[in-house]
Amino acid sequence: MIHQADAAATLLSNALSASGFVGTWEHDLVSGNVVLDGGAAEILLGDQDFAGHSITLGQTLSGLHPDDRDWVRPEIDEFARVGGIFSAEYRVRSPAGKTRRLLDLGQSVKQADGLRHGFGVLIDITDRPVHFMRTAAAPLTEPNVLEALAVLENRALGSASFRTRVLLQMLRLEIESQRI
Question: Where is the PAS fold-3 domain (predicted)?
Fold first, then answer.
């Protein structure tokens, strides 16, 4: 039985490593405070000593690339307000000036105390192709627009307001109706 547990642990470790897994976070959606594990603290703040300690969201985001700060914080604030699923790609800059691209995935869960908490993982995607930028740089054709709208609708399912989801659906339907 111990051999099976060791094999399962090795398999999980190898799978996480292959995925680019960096670390985990927990976000108290009421207080706004965040607890990072060692990997998340290292990549977001450049210091593993922050691991396991409750810190402010502002501290947590201090390592964000300056060009990403203005849009990431509102996304997180919306997640804290609405709950659901969280997904964002952004860049972080280490104290040494090294830039990394992260995929941040999470969801909110209602705890036994009745309060919602967010839990998530950080995945380093620095060395992976930048598909979104390729799509954005591609010629603006009808299929590309419809594909982009479908992606936006899927992302909006768990986190966007009802009005935003309806507007995306209306835009997609309008474009599709012009094809006939």
Answer: 60-114
Q: Which of 21, 19, 18 is nearest to 122 (CA)?
A: 21
pTM: 0.67
What is d(CA 27, CA 122) in angstroms, rounded to the nearest whole number? Answer: 13
Per-residue pLDDT tens digits for 69-86: 989 999 999 888 888 889
CA distance 150 to 124: 25
Cβ neighbors of 149 (< 8 A, separation 6 or more) are 168, 171, 172, 175
Mapped onto helix, strand or coil, the DSSP state of residue 51 is: coil
Both tokens of residue 154?
């899927």
Closest CA to 39 of 130, 99, 98, 120: 120
